[in-house]
TrEMBL record:
It comes from the Bacteria. Its EC number is 4.2.1.18. It is an enzyme of class 4 (lyase). Pfam families: ECH_1. SUPFAM superfamilies: ClpP/crotonase. The keyword RNA-binding does not apply. Keywords: Lyase. Gene3D superfamilies: 2-enoyl-CoA Hydratase, Chain A, domain 1, Lyase 2-enoyl-coa Hydratase, Chain A, domain 2. One of its GO terms (molecular function) is methylglutaconyl-CoA hydratase activity. This is Methylglutaconyl-CoA hydratase. InterPro entries: ClpP/crotonase-like_dom_sf (IPR029045), Enoyl-CoA_hydra/iso (IPR001753), Enoyl-CoA_hydra_C (IPR014748), Enoyl-CoA_Hydratase/Isomerase (IPR051683). Belongs to the enoyl-CoA hydratase/isomerase family.
Amino acid sequence: MTSALLRVAAGTGVATLTLDSPHNRNALSTPLIAALSEALAAAVADPAVRVIVLSHTGPVFCAGADLKETAAAFDGDGTLPVVPLADLLASLWESPKPIVARVGGPARAGGIGLIAAADIVVCAEEATFAFSEVRLGVIPAVISVPVRRRISARAAAELFLTGDVFSAARAAEIGLVTRAVPADALDEAVEAYCASLIKGAPAALAGARRLLQDVTVRDELARMADASDHYFRSAEGREGILAFREKRAPTWVP
């Protein structure tokens, strides 16, 4: 399955799901989330698929939630992208098949949620990361569920509260990514991990993955989706998104 926003490619035992919305830096719109969820379910159901790779086109892995769509939803009772994102992260987390993320460029907010839900993450040394939510008047509620299971509480406190950009080296140091490699070695490193994973017996890989899974994640994601929806629709959330789109500082910045 290939859509206008997502490319799906099949290799020997590997299904590659490629975010293909470079015009908005692969922002997580509701249609992209739906396409990714559908492709993930198909890959999980396909006995020929042993490993699932998340990749991207363009220089940015994923800019986070689609703020244009989010702002439009404020005018009615439309569903914010963050709500279906919670279901997608739960499905990624619960997948019986290993997931490898190939990150060739920056990831922000919701994009980091995708990374945290993967088992193995290889990023280019030039990639950068940031939990930018607080600077928009919202909180990293949904993505905190997988992220807090990857990084230390001290690192989470620093990065969630400051919103500062951090490097690929720091991401590897705190456990958010598995390895940071030169950009020209990215594909080779991903292929090497896939080759190793395919050597594992399918049922054993699924069982080993269950050892790493926290069964409370789906319920916690549902609660965090409600919290995130509240903050996005708050006065601060609306102002933060408006300020971002207008390329100005929000009113709370002195």
